[in-house]
Amino acid sequence: MTCEEPDCDREAAVRLRIPWDADREVCTAHARGLATQDGVVAEPIEGAEDEWP
Prior knowledge:
Helices cover 13% and strands 21% of the residues. By secondary structure, it is of the alpha+beta class. It has a 3-stranded antiparallel beta sheet. The model has no long low-confidence stretch (mean pLDDT 93).
């Protein structure tokens, strides 16, 4: 699965649980920024370990 952020073709490696929006599966680069928002929980996607730096 690819990152759900617009114009990104990286592999998704993190599921973001976002209380005010739908959950998203994103790459590690997008997860770093989005996971710093209050209430967002980042959860590694099983099987995507190769995508982690």
